């Protein structure tokens, strides 16, 4: 089996060297870039399996790199940055990052997160399946959603979350189960990401015959009005 490739993007050479050391020991092929523009060039030339991406960089910052990649690319991205504000974490997830770590960081934890994200990416392939609840229809294989026949644009995790809800229509799902269903059993992030994604999903479903209800003290459930 060929080695998986991780692209490490950071303008601090000692950070790049540290991450490369730990990833190489774990058997990964490591590519590096020290600014945003170079990162995009590396993606085109090496097609990495995952990107570890700093935010504050010269030439092009990590926000713009992530936005650019998400226009036509689903490569998993883990943001690694000194910016630890909740707002920055939310924005990072919103523009398409799969996970988020703040500096200073434990390189072993970073490796664990990389393994977790790559495992989820490998297991994303599903048989052709169509799900529906109320006026919402999901083509799981095509990863397309329609509401009353009209397409709905969803971020990757919004799609996965809606799919979990529709598969369990009427069932109360607590945050831990939702994390397991959508982010995987080995997810190491904050459970508050569930509340953020539910809020985004509710906004996208405005006017629909389905509703995500809060079950106070437990979690959420999806109900479909007749």
What topology emerges from the helices and strands here?
Elements: E1 5-9, H1 13-25, E2 29-33, H2 36-46, E3 50-53, H3 62-70, E4 77-81, H4 86-94, E5 99-102, H5 107-122, E6 130-133, E7 136-139, E8 144-147, E9 150-152, H6 156-167, E10 173-174, H7 175-183, H8 192-204, E11 210-215, E12 219-224
Parallel strand pairs: 1-2, 1-3, 3-4, 4-5
Antiparallel strand pairs: 6-7, 7-8, 8-9, 10-12, 11-12
Helix pairs in contact: 1-5, 2-3, 6-7, 6-8
Characterization of the model:
With 226 residues, this protein is α/β, with parallel strands linked by helices. The chain has two domains: 5-122, Rossmann fold (3-Layer(aba) Sandwich); 130-224, Arc Repressor Mutant, subunit A, CATH 1.10.10.10. Helix content is 41%, strand content 23%. The chain is built from eight helices and twelve strands. Strands 2-1-3-4-5 form a five-stranded parallel β-sheet, with helices on both faces. A four-stranded antiparallel β-sheet has the order 6-7-8-9, covered by helices on one side. Helix 4 (86-94) links the parallel strand 4 (77-81) and strand 5 (99-102). Helix 2 packs parallel to helix 3 (62-70) and helix 6 packs across helix 7 (175-183). The chain is elongated, with a radius of gyration of 18 Å. The termini are far apart. The mean pLDDT is 86.
